[in-house]
Design a protein that fits this description.
Blueprint (H helix, E strand, L loop, with lengths): L1 H19 L12 H12 L2 H18 L6 H20 L7 H23 L6 H51 L1
Helix pairs in contact: 2-4, 2-6, 3-4, 4-5, 5-6
Length: 178
């Protein structure tokens, strides 16, 4: 049932990112919500459990966006393994290091996007505009990102408790029928 949680969260995040956030001017410079979810997976879930989801999620977003193909898949993959590597280096069990990890994850994603834009469409945006957008996203990531990652962790715990309770009740009901 963990994958049910993952699919639900990813669907909600995609809808928020594509329909709600563009209509709120303050959130125009917000970082990719799926990056925060990828960071959560990198910090708190196993590679075996997370990697198939990251690949499928990246491919879906690659097909939905107008970006070069495999850009999101590559960025989610790099963020996931970058955060896992940093987690080992920083021992990220404490919440004090979480803002740094989220900010670095968003920075990795932005560097991949900038490299893809510069390589595919030279002269599209000025360096100052790109630097300002990245700085805003890093500020959002430092302030809001840790709360999102902890929120994903808590939601997953609630989901597991709800699903476990439902299955226990069904098992009890089937035992009574026998």
């Amino acid at each position: 049932m963990t994958y049910g949680f993952y699919l639900s969260i990813c669907l909600i995040l995609v809808v928020l990112q594509t329909t709600v956030m563009p209509n709120i001017p303050v959130l125009n410079s917000f970082f990719n919500l799926l990056t925060a979810f990828t960071i959560y997976l990198g910090l708190f879930r196993s590679t075996r459990e997370s990697l198939p989801l990251i690949i499928v999620l990246g491919l879906v977003i690659d097909n939905l966006s107008g970006a070069p193909f495999l850009l999101y898949t590559t960025s989610f993959f790099c963020v996931f393994f970058g955060v896992r590597w940093l987690k080992g280096m920083l021992q990220a069990g404490t919440h004090f290091r979480l803002p740094i990890l989220v900010t670095v994850g968003v920075l990795i994603e932005n560097l991949i996007y900038i490299a893809a834009v510069v390589l595919t469409i030279p002269g599209q945006q000025s360096a100052a505009a790109i630097a300002f957008a990245v700085a805003l996203q890093l500020c959002w990531a430092f302030v809001i990102g840790p709360f999102m990652v902890i929120g994903f962790k808590r939601l997953h715990q609630v989901w597991d408790n709800m699903v476990g309770t439902i299955f226990i009740k069904r098992a009890d009901m089937t035992e009574r029928e026998k």
